[in-house]
Amino acid sequence: MRRSAVDLQHLRAFIAVAREGNLTRASQVLHLTQSAVSLQLKHFQDALNLQLLARSLRGLSLTASGEQLLPLAERVLRSLDDLEQAANALQETVHGTVLIGTILNPGSIRLSPILQHLSDHHAGITAKLRHGMTRWVLEQVVNGELDAGFYLGFPEEIDPGLLHAVELMQLTFYVIAPKGWQDRIAGKDWKALADLPWIWTPPSSAHHRMLSRAFESARARPTIAAEADLEASMVDLVRAGVGLSLARDSIALSEAQTHGIAVEKSLAISIPMWFIARAARKDDPVIEAVFSAVAAAFE
Length: 299
Hints:
This protein is of the alpha/beta class.
């Protein structure tokens, strides 16, 4: 017998008749006519060159050959059902590569739980990370160079017609100064602090926008002593006595305790952290999966 001689429909007919014991009930299960089931059963037995069912007082009963082959036939059918289910699952699984723009440090943006959620729930998605300043991430998302990313920005900077954005949390920044400078910054306003040396940042950083906004509101121009493009470098320069900067509250308080730097909380600035993608891609399955992973990490 050639393997191709066994037809799937014939196999189903044999199993149905064997389980039900007569053609009437088997045809109802298969949604076929009795004659169609009888013909399929005949073809199946002819293909195997075996008699699998015999008539009895109760209808149709398995022969010795039928009793041996029925468990194998049922196993084949279960395997085929498993194959169909697996194929359907693969069709429903989201596949693709997503380029994500990151900022700050991995812990601050909860990168590990985000990637773990993607791995657990969307194994077909490969995440590739590109680190940069927050404004750079925004520009890359808008230009389509990045699929999604984190962004530190004020609400008015988010164009809903251009961006699909979800606010994740508020980050608070304190003014920090070198050790021993507490008396020089305590109780001072932005106008008074403008006369002290500042560690500035490039326009693409959130620090730049926060400080520019604060000094513009005070109608003051800060004294710039140095410029840095990394948060860690800014803190290092403050430690070294170069000048003032902004630091996230957790970092500022940790540095104050560990290295004795001065912290002024009265001039705290809060700014939202967002996860963004182009509005046109909001319903893209890959984008939806990534936003779902981010939401799970920040819930």
